[in-house]
Specification:
- This protein is of the alpha+beta class and 386 residues long.
- It has 4 domains: 2-45, no CATH class; 57-127, Alpha-Beta Plaits, CATH 3.30.70; 145-219, no CATH class; 228-381, no CATH class.
- The chain is built from 11 helices and 12 strands.
- Strand 3 (40-41) and strand 4 (44-45) form a beta hairpin.
- The longest helix has 45 residues, at 341-385.
- The chain starts with a helix and ends with a helix.
- Keywords: Metal-binding, Zinc, Zinc-finger.
Length: 386
């Protein structure tokens, strides 16, 4: 098909097989007119027509002054803006339809303008996201009644009609089996379809392509935080022991960190000078802020610092406890600044204290993990023997 298209009109921007034919995106008007004049494509007779939605765009404008004009007057005066259709939104109040200042505008271009001129107004144009398409016959989404393949109309209870007798069964959604009508906006399937419609409108793709993209994004399950990883990878009993260890050590760690920030106040010995932590840009990932510079420290630098016996936090045991405290308490591996003389010695002692606490936490975690692994292995051997 692509080779035939090259011979007939040359290289096009897109050619794709869809449900009932081929979707071709032309590069320019000349190529589009050449395609529209085709009656045969290779050995097959074809009918060429413009796509119903991809060649147009719809936007929403809001202006109360436009209520002074009829829709026909608006169409006549706004043709210079490339507008092909205008629809005024109405609401029902006390059984009567009332016009609202909201208008849906259709443009003869796939690119939606950001603003349009209406009389002396400069109006912002927002993308129009249509409601999910729902069939009134089978209550499923994605098609209309005229193209429904169902032979019977589904009742509000989610079942076929009851032979003319009134339905006394509770309401049940045919899409999610929830206790609400299929049209309910709280239905999770409705919300999924609303997201698909948003992708379809903003990305200018077909419904099936938008649904494919949505399903791909839904299948990507990235952990939101370190605690989520722990919940999905560690047994519940092990989690409780780790939490007890952390709770016991957090007051001591907090005391040391506070002392470092305040310049060593509250620690026995000569009073050291107060020093400020350098301000560095922080970035946020999964709701946790951390220092961007320390995050780029290479593993080789940490290993080198550990081998040389450095007392900075970069030599702390690289364990789960290190990660947990680093994320939740904001401990930064490169933010400890050593001074000179007695003050530098005092700050070094503080760092050693913090490092010892972290190593202690890491040791507890390793022992706890080894004990749990031994228990699991014993349990596995016992089950195998039986």
């Amino acid at each position: 098909m692509h080779a035939i298209c090259l011979q007939v009109v040359g290289e096009v921007r897109l050619i794709k097989k869809i449900k009932d034919g081929l979707l071709v995106e032309a590069k320019n008007d000349k190529q589009a007119k050449r395609l529209q004049s085709l009656v045969r494509f290779g050995e097959a007779d074809v009918v060429v027509k413009t796509h119903q939605t991809l060649n147009y765009s719809k936007g929403v404008i809001y202006c109360s002054d436009l209520l002074n004009c009829s829709v026909e007057e608006l169409k006549e005066h706004l043709l210079v803006e490339g507008i092909t259709d205008i629809k005024r939104i109405q609401t029902k109040k006390d059984g009567k339809l009332i016009d609202t200042p909201t208008h849906i505008i259709t443009f003869n271009s796939p690119v939606l303008p950001k603003k349009i001129n209406a009389a002396f107004h400069r109006l912002e144009v927002r993308p129009y996201i249509p409601n999910p398409l729902r069939c009134f016959k089978c209550q499923k989404f994605g098609h209309i009644t005229d193209k429904c393949e169902s032979k019977v109309q589904i009742c509000t209870c989610g079942q076929p009609p009851h032979d003319g007798t009134p339905c006394t069964l509770p309401i049940k959604c045919v899409n999610c089996s929830g206790d609400h009508p299929a049209r309910s906006r709280s239905c999770p399937v409705y919300q999924e379809e609303a997201t698909i419609q948003r992708i379809k409108t903003l990305d200018k793709v077909t419904y099936f392509e938008a649904k494919r993209r949505y399903n791909m994004s839904k299948n990507i399950n990235l952990p939101k935080s370190f605690s989520d990883v722990v919940k999905t990878t560690a047994p519940a009993a092990s989690n409780l022991k780790i939490e007890d260890i952390i709770k016991a050590l957090i007051p001591e760690i907090t005391k040391v960190v506070t002392s470092i920030i305040s310049g060593g106040a509250g620690i026995s010995g000569p009073q050291s000078q107060t020093f400020a932590l350098p301000s560095k840009k922080t970035i946020s990932r999964h709701g946790v802020q951390y220092d961007s510079q320390s995050n780029t420290d290479s593993v080789a630098e940490k290993r080198k610092a550990s081998e040389t016996g450095s007392d900075t936090e970069s030599s702390i045991l690289n364990s789960d406890a290190d990660l947990f405290i680093y994320l939740n308490l904001g401990v930064n591996k490169k933010r400890v600044v050593h001074g000179s003389g007695q003050a530098g010695k005092r700050k070094g002692d503080l760092v050693k204290s913090l490092s010892a606490l972290l190593r202690k936490t890491g040791t507890h975690l390793k022992q706890n993990s080894a004990q749990k692994m031994s228990e699991d292995q014993s349990l596995f051997r016992g089950r195998s023997a039986t």
